[in-house]
Write a structure and sequence with these properties.
There is one protein chain. This protein is mainly beta and 136 residues long. The protein contains 1 helix and 12 strands. The strands form 3 sheets. Strands 5, 6, 7, 10, 11 and 12 form a 6-stranded mixed sheet that branches. A 4-stranded antiparallel sheet has the order 1-2-3-4. The two termini are 24 Å apart. The model has no long low-confidence stretch (mean pLDDT 83).
């Protein structure tokens, strides 16, 4: 798989993710709306049901995976410029939190949406994310 796609129906957005590389082989029209160096890109669904450009680069530099409590996480940083709450120009970030699969569909992801103005949150549930001693 060259990319993963998940939606947030609450705010009519879609997020495209390339976990280990920049986004490639995106379908039309997303390929036109996403920066080729992006690891994450967000589009929006307009009132007519058409996919439109929203955030061309929601993160292009990948952090190393890191432990956060009882799960691991990954961030794509340095995306398109946006303004933080202190009126400073910063790069957009996408954060993916990987949780040990406990119920429901294994290897399922969910786009939680935009946190503030500069970060998107994705929750990904997978048996591959189980830490030693965790059951799935």
């Amino acid at each position: 798989t060259t990319y993963f796609l998940t939606e947030n129906r609450d705010d009519q957005t879609r997020i495209y993710l390339g976990l280990c590389h920049s986004l490639t082989n995106l379908p039309t029209p997303a390929a036109e709306f996403c920066d080729p160096s992006a690891y994450s890109c967000i589009t929006k669904i307009d009132a007519n049901g058409q996919e439109i450009e929203f955030i061309r680069n929601a993160g292009s530099n990948s952090s190393e995976m890191f432990l956060e409590g009882q799960h691991v996480a990954l961030e794509f940083r340095d995306g398109s410029n946006c303004t933080n709450r202190f009126d400073q120009s910063v790069g957009y970030t996408t954060r993916i939190d990987f949780f040990s699969y406990d119920s429901g569909e294994d290897n399922s992801d969910g786009y939680e949406g935009v946190l503030g103005k500069r970060t998107s949150q994705v929750f990904w549930h997978s048996s591959l994310a189980c830490l030693p001693g965790q059951k799935w």
